Amino acid sequence: MTQHDTLHIFSYLPRDLNFLVTLEFSRARPIIIDPGLYHLKKSGVFWAKEKISMPASFKVFMGSEWVMLSRSFLEFCIWSWDNLPRTLLMYYTNFLYSLEGYFHTIVCNHKDYQNTTMNHDLHYIKWENKYPINLALKHFEDMVQSGVPFARTFATDDPVLDKIDKDILRRSSGRFSPGLGVWELLV
Fold it and tell me: Which Pfam families does the protein's record reference (predicted)?
């Protein structure tokens, strides 16, 4: 699917949709301390023996860190006219992989955004155990049939990338993908 096709499809959808995979999470999480937040040099995280208990005032949700969020939802998270985003910012401060829960928990707990979620992150990913595998030519047909505009992960210079460029994006070697100019998309 070309960039133009993706923009065209999204132009028919409501602007307040949020694309993210969400699952309710019910286990206590380990606490970590990241010295990189306080020092100039990067170092590993420290694991505390304690775990963060589950809160009583909201349900915790987890999911993929690959999300597409609406402008209105992100403005809510940034400007925080409700206390929930600030509360969750503090709650997730000492979590490893907090991006896999912060936005998911806000969107699923706030009445204004609960019904704006599409439980899909628009990514094609093949998993092996807990990790995504590198996609290759043998996965090409499945990727195309999935109909989603994004995929991950790929090995550097894998031939499947050239096939995507040639067959889907209609891109010549070493050139940009053809498409309409920004001014044409806005008309």
Answer: Branch
Question: pLDDT tens for residues 67-82?
Answer: 999 999 999 999 977 8
CA 14 to CA 36: how far, in whole Å?
40
Cα Rg of the chain (Å, integer): 20
Alpha carbon distance 185, 170 (integer Å): 19
How far is it, in rounded angstroms, from Cα 121 to Cα 24?
A: 16
Peptide bond connecting 93 to the previous residue in cis, omega within 30 degrees of 0: no
Give CA–CA dist 16/70, Å, rounded: 5
Distance CA 95, CA 25 (A): 14
**Residues 135 and 160 sit within 8 Å (Cβ to Cβ):** yes
Q: What is the pTM of this model?
A: 0.73
Please give the single-letter amino acid code of residue 116.
Answer: T
User: Is-contact 52 29, C-beta < 8 A?
Assistant: yes
Neighbours of 31 (CB within 10 A): 16
The DSSP H or E segment spanning 51 is strand 46-52
Sign of the CA dihedral with 123 first, then 131, 21, and 36 last:
negative
